Amino acid sequence: MQVGDLVRMKSNQKMTRNPGIVVQIYDFEFPFMRLSGDEGSKVRPMASVHWPHLERAEPMDHRQDNLEVISENR
After folding, report:
1. Which of 15, 4, 11 is nearest to 63 (CA)?
2. Which of 9, 34, 35, 60 could form a disulfide bond with 16, CB atoms 3.0-4.6 angstroms apart?
3. Using one digit for the tens of pLDDT, what is the confidence trace for 31-74?
């Protein structure tokens, strides 16, 4: 997944059937997991997505594994 890709949510929710545009890719670290000593990854790959069909001024943040790329920007 890269900036400029068209994506949609993997769920069947009506509001996310239309594609959105990835505007930022980043890793989110869960600091509380680091302190608890839990095993496994403490970082989640995230994406900020602008959904043109929603009346919202700011992009929404989503875990990348909840998104599917439908058109790559290459």
Report:
1. 11
2. 9
3. 665 545 555 567 889 999 999 888 888 999 999 999 999 988 76
What's the whole-model pTM score?
0.76
Nearest of 41, 52, 49, 43 to residue 68 by alpha carbon: 49
* Cα distance between residue 41 and residue 14, in whole Å: 31
Paired tokens of 54: 């929603």
Are 51 and 71 within 8 A, CB to CB?
no
The residues, any chain, with a CB within 8 Å of residue 24's CB and separated by 6 or more, are: 3, 47, 48, 59
Per DSSP, which regions of the chain are E strands?
6-9, 20-29, 43-50, 60-63, 67-71
